[in-house]
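job 3f2a | input accepted
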Amino acid sequence: MFDAIVFDAYGTLFDVQSVTQESERLFPGNGSIISRLWRQKQLEYSWLRALMKRYATFDEINLDALRYSLQQIGKEPTDEVVANLAGQYLNLTPFPEVSEALQELNSVPLAILSNGTPSSLTAVVQNAGLESYFEHILSADSVKSYKPDPRVYELARVVFDAPKDQILFVSSNGWDVAGAKQFGFSVAWVNRSSKVQEELGVGPDYVVESLTGLLPVLS
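job 3f2a | predicted structure (219 res):
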């Protein structure tokens, strides 16, 4: 049905909230708020830098967002603490169904398209033992911008040399779903937590509760 399937990484394949455990160990009682605020500022900074044309790598943004988050709740962002927590992004936990779903979907060429840097994406994929499933790991760093900039989505269209609607883009992030659909991809939204669809004028072609829900889509 599709020429390729392209996955977002953070929040779609890998649980960004898995940093909560280490955050809680370092700052008891604050693990959840650190994790949530960190992710929120990480996204905000990527969008703001893209709009301001002041590019910094996602690794740099991740550090800035973490420092802000710790200071916001009154904690000292020492170099040791920041390096420790930021390093957790290289060992994010895949969602439980990821390996099974990728095995089932592997008859179609698979890729990752993410805001993460090439080195960090490669590390988290390898550390999770998922590298054999993907033909390409594509990074927004190639165009020095961030999703939902259309230039980022274009990376997948070019590498697969396929019509936009013949590429299925898969994301759990509502803003990413809207960006990919506006670009012209066929889009599946992995809505694990029953969120309301973003009011951005475009929506997904498919809504699934987990990656294994993509199997009927392909059949």
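job 3f2a | The beta strands are 4-7, 14-15, 93-94, 110-114, 136-139, 167-171, 186-190, 206-208.
job 3f2a | closed
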